[in-house]
Write a structure and sequence with these properties.
The complex is a heterodimer. Chain A is mostly helical. Chain A is 70% helix and 0% strand. In chain B, helix 10 (219-232) crosses helix 11 (261-273) and helix 12 runs parallel beside helix 13 (309-318). The chains are: A mainly alpha, B alpha/beta.
């Protein structure tokens, strides 16, 4: 039997008009607030004065890839790309598995009360703003009364200016980032773990599997799809090395290991008001991020995982 | 299901329609009513002056309204205010975003350099406005050179000055500690170094807590301002303008290339290595510095003259004999060490997109119409936030009352020309120290070292510089980073020549070409 309204696009739209009416608000939202502003990326190919208004975005003449070329030729281009990838890579290396491990450990915890208290405590740092976190880190590592330096002094050592030493700076960034985000990041894995069929564990126990084998062959495979999706997202954000955290903690003596794309864009774009230039750098970053997402997704699918599309 | 979906969709559509119709009708009514009675409205972005020093986030609403009403009644202008974040970078970022987004801001402070906003096309030219509505602003300002500093070379004025050349960078020393250790007040760098050594070794604070030399917020810059002139013989320029004229070729170069600047850097590195300096001296925050002062740990401090005072009141509660004195006229191999703060490029601006630039200038001028109005807009209501002690003396003696009912949102154009018209009764130790410096040394500039391009650096055309030197930001980063690493001992002084080579590798030739051309254009030399 032919469905009412026919099978043509018009017919289908007529048939599902109420669904479309409900969707309209959401679609409009995305068009107005997400897609129309994308016109702004054209200023990456123009020289637009920041305060000439929206019309200047249209009328300014195209200057091609000048801003991109200036960025690629800038003296610190490779330094900031290297820093961005190094800091992001370290955060991915240590920060990505940390919530998975925490979720697995919480999953193995016996006492429900202990589990809940631990979970709550682990979420708390997520709600601390980055400004407060930076204040905490500075205070803890201070050379005048900071806990770590006081301990060093107690053992007869010399105080260390941790935040001013290039060799410590990235470690501080990664550790504080893992501490802040580990608990909150574990929620999604705990949710995935709760969906694991208990019969699988019962069968494994009958087969003589211990806790470790159960984790290895039941728990991890059952949350693998979530891990893959989260990993794809994390790789997509590889060029987001944590702008706010770095801006609040860095100083000239550690620029060499901490100046990233975003801090560079901040200085050149927002402070020196080269909006076209900073849009070009932002666009470059987005293209790389998109490439990484597509690449990782393709890789995941090739390895038999679902991916995000 | 289909039916219920349809009902929801229809109901939503009808509700949306009703909302739009009702909103339009309301808007029409209010617009028509408002047209008849609405006063001219201007918005101030309060990012300079007293609001930035307040420890409470906003004024008491009743006092704020009373001042707002007074201004409205006297000028017919409805002045609205936006309080900027305390952090300078955050305040600047917010301002730039508000301006770029087209939000209504009429008056704002260019905190470091008005030329950044002028180059970006954000400013209103002020010549005509000043001529028509700025009588008080023009007549009260006592330093005529400042107008040139606030202008482009075609004579267009883009900002209103707030600060003249000053002597605000002070090396404070704990005299009670030198007395305790039997040391005389140092007059030159060697004697000062001996004091630092004594502080380090004899530890007057006890428990190894003594910090012979500290600084706060912009340590690297403050050290340059306070010490480098004694080595180079020329003044250390304002922030971002630390350059000098090389007499061998007449070109303007970064001060890092001065033959004796490395001696200054070597001295700082030596002090750092010997533990005379607080380890975080180049990046210590203002608050952290104040805490160290308060904790009775700091022997001497190289700071902006009001920075030290923040910790002193609390220090005095615990250590009543604590006594910081400014070390004036300390000399080095090339004479007096301290450098003058050149005419500031900070100024009050009217936004290009201001809907009411005339009202903005009228309001700025109104604030300076008389002392009571100025004090009210800056410090609050007479009798509630402050009171006169002697209205007839010169300067007028007044007193801030011990509350923070009002933080100064309506200040608009903080002006040193007005600050010197009144003097406070300094009762708190912090106020006494500040007040003493304002009277003794703040405007005494004769002895100070002056930069090679003193008085003219503000007139360099940023656009012309950027056209020749496209990566000034990279070079600035290298300069900051390089000197910091030498001082902190992360790079040996033996590599200073290599550092200079790296600067050239980053495009210093273009930098020198661009700045020298501007120096020549402005001075004719």
């Amino acid at each position: 039997m032919k469905a009412a309204g026919g099978s043509s696009l018009r017919g289908r739209m007529a048939r599902y008009r109420m669904h479309y009416a409900l969707m309209a608000g959401g679609i409009l939202y995305f068009i107005i607030f997400r897609y129309v502003p994308m016109y702004g990326i054209t200023i990456a190919f123009k020289n637009v004065m920041p305060f000439d208004g929206i019309w200047a975005m249209v009328t300014a003449p195209y200057i091609g890839f000048t801003h991109f070329i200036n960025f690629f030729r800038s003296y610190y281009f490779w330094n900031i790309i290297g820093n961005t990838l190094a800091i992001s890579g370290l955060k991915l290396l240590f920060g990505f598995p940390a919530p998975i491990l925490l979720a697995l450990m919480l999953n193995e915890a016996w006492g429900i009360r202990f589990k809940k208290v631990t979970q709550t405590i682990s979420y708390l740092p997520h709600f601390i703003s980055m400004v407060v976190l930076a204040g905490l880190v500075s205070t803890l590592l201070s050379t005048s009364g900071g806990v770590f330096n006081e301990i060093i002094k107690k053992f007869g050592g010399e105080t260390i200016y941790f935040l001013g030493e290039p060799k410590y700076f990235r470690t501080i960034l990664v550790v504080s980032d893992v501490w802040k985000n580990m608990g909150w990041g574990s929620i999604i894995y705990l949710a995935a773990l709760s969906g694991t069929n208990p019969e699988l564990y019962e069968a494994a126990i009958v087969d003589g599997a211990g806790r470790w084998k159960q984790t290895l062959y039941i728990t991890l495979p059952s949350i693998a799809y979530v891990i893959v999706i989260m990993f794809i997202f994390a790789v997509g954000g590889l060029l987001d090395a944590g702008f706010e955290q770095i801006l609040l903690l860095y100083s000239p003596s550690v620029y060499q290991v901490s100046d990233i794309i975003d801090t560079y864009v901040y200085r050149e774009g927002l402070i020196n008001m080269k909006y076209s230039f900073s849009t070009a750098v932002g666009l470059f970053k987005s293209v790389i991020a998109m490439t990484l997402i597509v690449g990782t997704n393709a890789l995941a699918r090739k390895m038999g995982q679902e991916g995000i599309w | 299901m289909k039916r219920s979906l349809g009902t929801i969709a229809k109901t939503s559509a009808v509700l949306c329609l009703l909302l739009v119709v009702a909103g339009a009708a309301w808007a029409k009514g209010t617009t028509e009513a408002a047209k008849a009675a609405k006063p001219v409205e201007i918005w101030i972005y309060a990012n300079t002056g007293t609001p930035q020093l307040a420890s409470v986030p906003a004024s008491d609403p009743a006092d704020y309204k009373e001042i707002y009403d007074m201004i409205l009644a006297k000028t017919g202008i409805s002045v609205k205010t936006i309080i900027a974040p305390k952090n300078t970078a955050e305040a600047e970022t917010k301002l730039n975003l508000l301006l770029a987004a087209g939000d209504q801001i009429d008056i704002f402070g260019a905190i470091s350099d008005w030329r950044v906003y002028q180059t970006a096309g954000a400013l209103q030219p002020l010549n005509d406005l000043l001529e028509k509505y700025g009588k008080n602003t023009k007549t009260s300002w006592l330093w005529p050179d400042a107008w040139r500093t606030m202008s482009t070379s075609d004579g267009t004025i883009w900002a209103l000055p707030g600060t003249p050349p000053l002597n605000p960078y002070i090396l404070y020393l704990r005299k009670d500690w030198t007395d305790k250790l039997g040391l005389k007040m140092p007059t030159n760098i060697d004697e000062y170094e001996a004091v630092l050594k004594a502080f380090k070794e004899k530890d007057p604070a006890g428990n190894g807590a003594t910090i012979p030399l500290a600084s706060g917020q912009r340590g690297q810059f403050y050290l340059g301002k306070i010490f480098s002139g004694g080595f180079t013989g020329v003044g250390y320029g304002n922030l971002g303008l630390t350059d000098w004229v090389d007499p061998s070729d007449g070109k303007l170069k970064p001060v890092e290339l001065h033959p004796q600047f490395r001696d200054y850097v070597a001295k700082m590195a030596d002090w750092y290595a010997k533990g005379y300096m607080q380890k975080e001296i180049l990046s210590l925050s203002r608050d952290a510095h104040a805490e160290l002062v308060m904790a009775n740990k700091v022997g001497s401090s190289a700071v902006w003259y009001t920075r030290l005072t923040q910790g002193i009141t609390n220090l005095k509660k615990n250590v009543p004999d604590a006594n910081y004195v400014p070390l004036q006229d300390l000399t080095g191999p090339k004479g007096v060490m301290a450098s003058v703060e050149d005419m500031s490029l900070a100024g009050t601006c009217i936004a290009k997109k201001s809907k009411n630039p005339e009202a903005a200038m009228k309001y700025i001028d109104f604030v300076k119409s008389d002392i009571v109005t100025y004090l009210t807009c800056c410090y609050g209501l007479e009798g509630k936030s402050w009171r006169f002690i002697d209205k007839n003396s010169t300067p007028i003696i007044w007193e801030k009352l011990p509350n923070e009912r009002y933080i100064g949102e309506f200040q608009a154009n903080p002006s040193f020309a007005w600050s010197i018209k009144f003097s406070t009764v300094a009762t708190a130790p912090s106020a006494q120290l500040e007040s003493a410096w304002v009277k003794q040394g703040l405007t005494k500039l004769d002895q100070l070292k002056k930069p090679s391009d003193y008085g003219v650096s503000a007139m360099y055309d940023k656009n012309k510089i950027m056209a020749i030197c496209t990566n000034e930001g990279d070079i600035q980063r290298m300069r900051d980073e390089g000197i910091a690493k030498f001082i902190l001992g992360q790079r040996p002084m033996a590599e200073y020549d290599q550092f200079v080579k790296e600067l050239y590798g980053a495009g210093l030739d273009k930098w020198i070409e661009a700045y020298s051309a501007e120096y020549k254009r402005v001075t004719g030399k």
